[in-house]
Amino acid sequence: MESANEGPLLSPSPAPSRSGMARAALGLSLAAFVLPLGIAAIVLGHIAESRIESSGGLLQGKESARAALWIAYIQLALVSLVAVVLWGLVGSTAAGFRRDALVQMVLREHDQQRTLDPESAQQAEATAKSLVYQMIAIEDELHRYSEEELYACHIEQLLATGMKGMSEAEVRGFATRVADSPYLFEISRCNPGTDRVREPGYILTAVPRSPRMPEGSAVFCSDQTGMILQVRGGTSADCLKSGQPAP
Fold it and tell me: How far is Cα 150 from Cα 206, in angstroms, rounded to an integer?
């Protein structure tokens, strides 16, 4: 029989158990350099730490949760530092490549194969027309001031001559603009004045380069009269045959 002096039997307190979430956070923290795993380790570590503190001693593993957080944060900080350093190295290397003469030449060649957008193509047309006007002015100046009524029959000769009063730097700059233009300039049917049978004169044409200029770009042509004609979507022969005065 149960003794009258004995009190009610007390059930023993459950033994504290180790938090599985803390162990999972610690495992993930070892691979925290992988960004998704690092974020998961930090989230699980904070949740595990919070549950352990509010369990009243029923859960253990606070040290594991803390260790997971430290490891994850340190690894992510190191990864961020390495990423910043590598990004700076890549940026400086890329800048060095851009300054390299060979790379610049390759980039220019690649750029010359890319079709201009409509706004850039419109600007290129206006520039080409302006260059034609300047070439006509040089031809006219040669004709008027030359004792033999000469015209320049080659673009290279015309560019080397330049306008009267131009400095050497201005002559070189003009030649560079012509060379860099997405238009091809040509002088044909030229009689500089040495052939007394034919009237002195020339044909000057500016044809858009493909694929740099889009289809339907203006073709310009002119002669010793100084009038510039243009046609769209045609050839230099079309311009000479049915071109309209350029606006």
Answer: 22
